Amino acid sequence: MNAPELPDPPPRGKPISPLKRYLLRGLGIVMVALATAGAFLPLLPTTPFLLVALWAFTASAPEWAERLRRHARFGPLLIAWEERQAIPVPAKAASGLAMGGSWTALALTYHNVWVVGGVGVVLVAVFAYVVTRPSA
Question: How many beta carbons lie within 10 A of that of residue 81, not counting itself?
Fold first, then answer.
């Protein structure tokens, strides 16, 4: 499978300090490590960590961001998010199921109605955001 063609990277903004560059690179590396763990651990998400890594690398190490964009499996998802904030339909369904299951487990085990209700409101808001994104 050929790597997707990528548009030219956007022009860089104002230069960042060396300390900020190292901190962002470190954050990106940690996020890639967590995403790698998420690929093997069922309850740890992968894509959100890769999105944060892409953001950090875009600001601090554009060549590393390009490597993420060119990844055979995750590159198209990251590009779709960058270009259109698009989320694949299976990911939308999985997030809805995970949020619904998490809320149900909380409601069955934690009996404070305010906590359960508050978490439910937050999860509904997050899911509303997810389903209103374009589909990849």
Answer: 19
What is d(CA 124, CA 117) in angstroms, rounded to the nearest whole number? 10
Give 10-28 as a DSSP string: PPP-S---HHHHHHHHHHH
Strand partners, 135: 87
Q: What angle do CA 73, 26, 39 make, to 5 degrees?
A: 30
* H helix intervals, 15-112: 18-40, 47-60, 62-69, 75-84, 89-109
Q: How far apart are the first and last CA of the chain?
A: 19
- Residues 34 and 126: their CA atoms lie apart, in Å, by 22
CA–centroid distance for 40 within its chain = 16
**pLDDT by position in tens, the chain (length 136):** 555 565 555 555 677 899 999 999 999 999 999 999 988 988 788 888 999 999 999 999 999 999 999 999 899 999 999 999 999 999 899 899 999 999 999 999 999 999 999 999 999 999 999 999 999 8
* Rounded (5°) CA angle 38-42-48: 40
